[in-house]
Write a structure and sequence with these properties.
alpha/beta; 582 residues; 22 helices; 54% helix
């Protein structure tokens, strides 16, 4: 503006040139949210350290944001809701006259297959592992076929083929006799996992069991629900996180376990066996319990839930969970999980306990909520500087601030205030987009600062001395009191810590204005070095200044509350509409 009013730049005085450089630099620096990146990184780092103290390894720092926004948590039954320590509860034989007992057959199968999962461990603990029968051909267990099979020989003569696995996969559904179906339904309704041992005198051919296998025995396994699983699931329900259970087991078994663990909507379950991709997509958001799910279907479920607008966390510990974990927004595993699973997971629970998940989600919410609130203070100054620079250009006035005049706002209110707020507990659900949240909360603060500066200019003009030194002091007071007023707005609702923070910064600000301000110097347009007076000078000049000052602060608070409410009104309406639809 000075250059525009002085066509001949060579006629500018040293003081005018100094002021041009100083004010231009102040505008540029003021529009940079300096410290915001440091605060964000520091808050995330503190969150990672706090989680490490809870035996949680965060392999991707920015996964904390996704974790904070999670509103759907997908769990596997075994090892998550249950403790994974299966045991055989019962065994029902259908062919008691056979020359080999169930113990001989299952023990020989375990010896031949050498599987190392929770089911095989439970079978070995109950039936043992011996080589009474010699294996000729084997079909190892897989999550897609859901059974294993072995063709045995004894003394060089083929004994037959035995298959062990999910009844509806070992036998075709149409081939399951009614008596067997009734028993399976009875045991699964008790929350037990049912395995069918079937037999055929033919050999395995082409990695397929013979088509004429007949029921030989039913083996029932139980899995203990974790002691804290009910408490954990209840925490998620109270904190607006929907829990879905995805398992390869019988859906009725999964439903009963989920019901006992307190999963909402556990009575609505579905089997994905034989479903097309379109049917899986259609069922994804209608049910909370899914059984007979293949690894590919798990990934498709996660995709469909995300497509519906949800942020999804997926827990898993085996290779069959990898596809789904990659599709999720935040993947979680345990230290005892497979190496492949741990390599792609965002978070690893080193204590192998999914019951620490509430603390992990709460820490993510604390970090992101506090970063959003604290960062709005930085953006408040940026918006104020940019807007007031435009106002100064349009009114042909000099930008009234230099960098040292904005130091009090930057150090006390923005620097110390934002850092203190970023460390506060906050488990509220994170919603909305980060950038839109920042602007919606920074705009009221910027409006307060702009209003204060304009009002204080009028106060200085009509109530106080036109002295340039005191004018600078008044501008510092305008920024500081405006910043404190908005800090008061974003600190609500108050607790002991936030109340202490606002009171402390208010006291320090008054000390700054009265005792530190006279230490600052400036050069006027003539190049003369001047000192800024303290704020007490205004009280001596006119008692009306005190009344006006208090009125402006009160107005700032009311304005901040009103603008915050006004900007958040559309989001509140959307939330009410969503709750109504739900």
């Amino acid at each position: 503006v000075i250059i525009a009013t002085h066509p001949d730049v060579t006629t500018l005085t040293e003081g005018e040139l100094t002021e041009i450089v100083t004010k231009t630099t102040s505008v540029i620096l003021g529009m940079i949210p300096s410290g915001m990146f440091l605060l964000t990184t520091l808050a995330l780092a503190v969150g990672v350290v706090r989680l490490a103290n809870r035996h949680t390894s965060v392999q991707d720092m920015y996964a904390l944001e996704m974790l904070a926004r999670v509103d759907v948590l997908c769990l596997d039954k075994t090892g998550t809701i249950t403790d994974g320590r299966m045991k055989v509860a019962n065994c029902v034989m259908f062919n008691s006259s056979y020359k080999y007992s169930v113990n001989d057959i299952v023990a020989s199968m375990q010896h031949a297959l050498a599987d190392n999962n929770q089911t095989s461990v439970a079978l070995r603990n109950y039936f043992g592992s011996a080589s009474k029968l010699v294996a000729e051909e084997i079909i190892p267990f897989s999550s897609s076929r859901k059974y294993s099979a072995v063709t045995f020989a004894d003394g060089g003569k083929t004994v037959g083929t035995f298959a062990l696995g999910a009844p509806e996969f070992v036998l075709a559904k149409s081939a399951i006799p009614k008596y067997l179906a009734d028993q399976i339904k009875h045991y699964t309704s008790l929350g037990q996992r049912v395995l069918l041992l079937a037999m055929s005198e033919k050999k395995i051919a082409g990695e397929k069991i013979p088509s004429d296998v007949k029921p030989f025995a039913l083996i029932m396994l139980t899995d203990n629900i974790r002691r804290d699983a009910i408490k954990t699931i209840n925490w998620f329900r109270k904190n607006d996180v929907a829990v879905k259970v995805i398992s390869g087991d019988n859906p009725m078994t999964v439903s009963e376990v989920a019901r006992r663990a307190g999963v909402e909507g556990a009575d609505k379950f579905i089997s994905l066996e034989g479903m097309s991709d379109e049917e899986v997509i259609d069922a994804a958001n209608k049910y909370n319990v899914f059984g007979r799910v293949t690894p590919e279907q798990k990934a498709l479920l996660i995709k469909s839930i995300k497509r519906a607008g949800h942020t999804v966390a997926m827990t898993g510990d085996g290779v069959n969970d990898i596809l789904a974990m990659k599709e999720s927004d935040c993947s979680i595993t345990v230290a005892t999980g497979s190496d492949a699973t741990k390599s792609i997971a965002h978070i690893v629970l080193m204590n192998n306990n999914f019951n620490s998940m509430p603390a992990v989600v709460a820490e993510g919410r604390r970090v992101i909520n506090n970063i959003e609130k604290s960062s709005s203070l930085f953006l408040m100054k940026t918006l104020f500087t940019a807007t007031f620079a435009i106002i100064s250009i349009l009114t042909h006035e000099i930008f009234p601030f230099d960098s040292q005049m904005m130091m009090m706002l930057e150090v006390l209110i923005i620097g110390i205030g934002s850092f203190a707020l970023s460390m506060q507990p906050n488990v509220n659900k994170v919603s909305g987009k980060f950038v839109s949240y920042l602007f919606s909360h920074a705009i009221p603060g910027a409006v307060i600062l702009i209003t204060n500066v304009l009002v204080f200019k009028l106060i200085n003009k009509y109530l106080l001395s036109p002295d340039q030194g005191y004018y600078n002091t008044i501008m510092v007071a305008a920024l500081s009191l405006g910043g404190l007023s908005y800090l008061h707005v974003i600190c609500k609702p108050y607790n002991t810590f936030r109340a202490f923070l606002v009171i402390s910064l208010t006291v320090v600000s008054l000390v700054w204005l009265n005792y530190l301000m006279p230490l600052f110097t400036f050069k006027d347009v003539g190049g003369t070095i001047r000192h800024m007076p303290n704020i007490l000078y205004g009280f001596k000049q006119n008692w009306m200044f005190v009344v006006t000052l208090l009125a402006v602060v009160q107005f700032d608070v009311l304005l901040g509350n009103f603008l915050t409410w006004l900007i958040s009104l559309p989001a509140q309406r959307r939330l009410k509409a969503a709750q109504k639809d739900k």
